[in-house]
Amino acid sequence: MNHFLRLGAYVLHPLLMPFLGAAIYYIITPRYVETETISNKLVAISIITILLPIVTYFLLRNLKLVNSIKLEEVWERKIPLMLQCVLVFLIIKMVFDAYITPELYFFFVGVLFSTFAALFLVVFKIKASLHQMGISGLTFFVIALSVHFKINMLFWIATLIFANGWVASSRLHTNSHTKVELILGFFLGVIPQLLMLNFWL
Predict the structure, then answer these.
(1) Handedness of CA 198, 96, 83, 11 (dihedral sign)
(2) 58 is in which domain, residue-wise?
(3) Phi first, then psi: what are they for 95, rounded to 5°?
(4) Dist CA 12 CA 7 (whole Å)
(5) 188 vs 46: CA distance, rounded Å
(6) Helix, strand, coil in percent for the chain, rounding step 5
(7) Pair 187, 117: CB distance under 8 Å
(8) Rounded to 5 degrees, what are φ and ψ at 25?
(9) Does the pTM exceed 0.90?
(10) Structural domains in the chain (count)
(11) pLDDT at residue 140 tops 70
(12) Nearest to 189 by CA among 6, 12, 32
């Protein structure tokens, strides 16, 4: 059980959530999208939101600006979150169009607001769970897609709800976060996605 709980923090890392959101969208969307277009979009997202942050982490670690990949101290989160805001903004401006794929465009706008909110809290030395923020935002997005496309997505939704519990249990088990920080992360993920529904649902 110990290994299973610890595994949750890696399998459901917040850097993976934007990619998973886009991948799930392309899997379930009833709209026709060329395979090449899907591949190009997913590759762009993986490079911008996964590979670049990983490379930057090693740079920051060498410069002694972060101590570990877990970002346990509040001050360690400032630069990575600032970078993530810039990278998500690049995706919004360069990868998706609000008229062609409004669902994904506003999903990433929601991700940007969530990231910015987490950064804002860091200024006041408040640490929210980024893991919980990522998985809760993705879960709400998938629920909204189910309603939007009128598709039965109970399997996806049930799996993601389980993932929310897995992440929360993992973070508590490793003493990475308090219950308050997990709840705060949950709402930081859900509220921006909820607000974005006005533009595409």
Answers:
(1) positive
(2) 2-200
(3) -100, -40
(4) 8
(5) 22
(6) 80, 0, 20
(7) no
(8) -60, -50
(9) yes
(10) 1
(11) yes
(12) 12
